Amino acid sequence: MLATGAAAGVAIERMTVGRGMRKKARLALDSAGPYGSLRGTPGRAYADDGTELYYEVDDADPDAEASPARRRRLFGRREPAPVTVVFSHGYCLNQDSWHFQRAALRGVVRTVYWDQRSHGRSARGAAQTESGEPVTIEQLGRDLKAVIDAAAPEGPLVLVGHSMGGMTMMALADQYPELIRDRCVGIALVGTSSGRLGEVNFGLPMAGVNAVRRVLPGVLKALGQRAELVERGRQATADLFAGIIKRYSFASRDVDPAVARFAERMIEGTPIDVVAEFYPAFNEHDKAEALAHLAGRPVLVLAGVDDLVTPSEHSEEIAGLLPDAELVLVPDAGHLVMLEHPEQVTDRLADLLARVGAVPAAATVGGYGSSTAEPG
Q: What is the Cα gyration radius of the chain?
């Protein structure tokens, strides 16, 4: 959407391969890839404007999804503590973006995955569709509170958020500091930012960035008003969008094509009018002061070194405001670091869960799929 120069290069590259062949390849990847196939016990929460928010729960049950042997391999011999881990996804994604982490933690600790308003299986934002109110990060924080009230009304919490999901957690802390104080025992902020997103250059020359910033809000608004026509255009230019999505999602050259296609499907599945509704909220996002509510608790701050969407410098700034936080910068990783390098993300998350008593011992997580293409 933003990488004009990259888009031109991708377009030239795609001209060398037949469109029909590429379409068949996408269909094959869609049918063969297991990513996003994990499901839990469904539930629904309701936001303060009536929006229905969809979530799923994976309970910690050694007789259900995970065998005792697998639980011992992951986290040691003792049973996990009664902690609920709540995962919040990013912009234009859905709860399935946590596929690898979900596969590793399934049956080991109680987890909740939810779709943000207007994303995934959640309903379109009622305030946006009925009264035209803009989406705000503050509203997303209240949405997360509604999900917690419905899915985890009691007991300690670990909050995990990627990109917009991390911003949602900051808004929750800002509006409900008592919830953080009384119940939150751990936080993981993945590829996110506490503000100054209007300064991100997305890897473009400054002249191009300034031009994009001037026109993009108006362009998105106009496109959102002609959503049906735009969606047909997106389908017609799928190859172009695939190249752009890959550039802004991953940094590695050898990402499994099925993983890349999985990310592409999630982003493609976000209607253009939703893209337009949410975009202005990021320029207004400023929650640096809200981070003070997270101080004194175990915090993991993790980012891909080559993230072009929320640059790793933003994670370094968050860690600077939380001096006791663990800062992890993953080399050769882009914005979707939890899909690109799932083992590293899950290992660090497992360490955090062990530190807060959710599990008794952490171990290297493996054997739950790979984001790296097989050689040859």
A: 20
